[in-house]
């Protein structure tokens, strides 16, 4: 649950009673899990204020946003992707706040495995307000290939930029399998909000990156990604 898009570093987690009801387990078990996560440095208690996800010490903004297809072209690699799912869902309170929409508003949610020269290097999950991308479908996305090119050509959304964070995080079993990563290896996880030229948020993005195949480089405020597809 803590690895879902609803939680980020520095967020407060629900109280034990609420977690017990939400997860369908006893408060004793919840308390044990929380204690273990505190011992691991994932959570911290703040006196009577509750329990919080440990805040990231350093956040490095990445600008501007570049579509994966464009990044791969710059790196001399051939891009491809596999659409894992595409569906409409209601915005949670946190996603709604990030995208400046109302809780419960419809979201287009899509998850893709991205490949460079046939090698998987990241899993991207995008959340877009349906009102901004009316009519967007899985068929359109698979035919076009590039989400940002589709946004520009069909929805006149240009000159996007992003604000986000990168941190190391454990991968799920599914993520290990999709990325063909070594067991128990961590991932570089980017979470960010993508804005249009009018400074309006158009996407919340979670990108789980292969630790050996992706390196993020900060260079004069511009985001560059080195891809080592052969490793």
Overall description:
With 231 residues, this protein is of the alpha+beta class. The chain folds into 2 domains: 1-55, Orthogonal Bundle (Arc Repressor Mutant, subunit A); 68-227, Chorismate lyase-like (Chorismate lyase, 3-Layer(aba) Sandwich), CATH 3.40.1410. Helices cover 25% and strands 35% of the residues. A 6-stranded antiparallel beta sheet has the order 3-4-5-8-7-6. Strands 1-2 form a two-stranded antiparallel ribbon. Strand 1 and strand 2 (51-53) form a beta hairpin. Helix 1 crosses helix 2. The longest helix is centred in the N-terminal third of the chain and has 13 residues, at 27-39.
What low-confidence regions span 5 or more consecutive residues with pLDDT below 50?
57-61, 220-231
Query: How helical, in percent, are the residues?
Result: 25-40%
CATH-wise, what's the superfamily of the largest domain?
Chorismate lyase-like
Helix/strand order: HHEEHEHEEHHEHEEEE
Beta-strand segment tally: 10
Keywords: DNA-binding, Transcription, Transcription regulation
Pfam families: GntR (PF00392), UTRA (PF07702)
Protein name: GntR family transcriptional regulator
Domain HTH gntR-type: 1-56
């Amino acid at each position: 649950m803590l690895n879902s898009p609803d939680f980020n570093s520095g967020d407060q987690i629900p109280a034990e009673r609420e977690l017990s009801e939400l997860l369908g387990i006893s408060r004793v078990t919840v308390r044990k899990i929380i204690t273990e996560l505190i011992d691991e440095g994932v959570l911290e208690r703040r006196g009577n204020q509750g329990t919080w996800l440990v805040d990231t010490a350093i956040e490095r903004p990445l600008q501007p946003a570049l579509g994966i297809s464009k990044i791969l072209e710059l790196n001399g690699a051939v891009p491809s992707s596999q659409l894992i799912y595409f569906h409409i869902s209601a915005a949670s309170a946190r996603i709604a706040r990030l995208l400046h929409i109302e809780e419960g508003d419809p979201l287009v949610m899509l998850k893709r495995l991205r490949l460079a020269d046939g090698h998987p290097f990241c899993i991207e999950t995008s959340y877009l307000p349906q009102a901004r991308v009316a009519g967007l479908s899985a068929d359109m996305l698979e035919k076009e290939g590039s989400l940002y090119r589709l946004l520009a050509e069909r929805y006149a959304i240009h000159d996007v930029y992003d604000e986000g964070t990168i941190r190391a995080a454990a991968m799920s079993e599914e993520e290990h399998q999709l990325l063909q990563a070594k067991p128990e290896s961590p991932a570089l996880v980017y979470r960010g909000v993508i804005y249009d030229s009018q400074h309006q948020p158009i996407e919340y993005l979670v990108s789980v990156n292969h630790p050996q195949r992706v390196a993020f480089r900060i260079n004069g405020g511009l985001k560059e990604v080195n891809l080592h597809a052969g490793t």
